[in-house]
């Protein structure tokens, strides 16, 4: 398959927002093609947002470049087309690692005694099993180990790396007067068993509030909150994704 000037190998996997293709010559890397799709509510709401794939790729590239520059081990190699990254091939661990600085959203629904806006010091880290049939349940360290999803040592590494990733991104967002509220990341294992921050970190991966103002949110929550999806609302949402891509350009301007 060809995408622009790229020759893509066979399709290896497809998610809601990306497609993974083999590299035709290098088994150690893959192409990650960002799609224009957008979903919420375990896929109950789905839309196509033309141009989102390119903006997500740009945001993702900026974020992973920043993390690499800060010495975090990731799968990122480069951006090879407007909506395509090339990354190290690895086996994904079926966990979402969620870091929370400020209590909001689903955390409040699970913990009704916690006041919205409560600040977590240090950053709270939670693990969710990627299982659509069970709506990605929250899991404990003990459950993760018992299911053979990860070892205790890997869990410790993911928790520590998650906090480090959050703090790097928190500083970057603060530099443009945006509050990073929470963020989710994923990990993969290389053939050698090394853990890498992998998958995607883009505008669907976090909550960000300009000036700390929830009413000015720029992230995917805007889509989740739409009482009804209309062309006008989607067009306004695309502008927010554009704004986020532009802001993350500033993360790496000096480089």
List the main descriptive attributes of the protein structure presented here.
single chain; 255 residues; alpha+beta; Phosphorylase Kinase, domain 1; D-amino Acid Aminotransferase, Chain A, domain 1; 2 domains; seven-stranded antiparallel β-sheet; 29% helix
- Helical amount among residues, as a percent range? 25-40%
Question: Quick one: overall form?
Answer: globular
**Main beta sheet strand tally, sense and closure:** 7 strands, antiparallel
For the record, what is the CATH homologous superfamily label of the largest domain? ATP-grasp fold, B domain
- Give the terminus-to-terminus CA distance: 33 Å
**How much strand content do the residues show?**
25-35%
Helix-strand sequence: EEEEEEEHEEEEHEEHHEEEHH
Structural class: alpha+beta
Q: Radius of gyration, rounded?
A: 18 Å
Number of helical elements? 6
The overall pLDDT average reads 96
Question: At the first level of CATH, what is the class of the largest domain?
Answer: Alpha Beta
CATH fold-level assignment of the largest domain: D-amino Acid Aminotransferase, Chain A, domain 1
pLDDT < 50 runs, ≥5 residues? none
CATH architecture of the largest domain: 2-Layer Sandwich
How many separate structural domains?
2
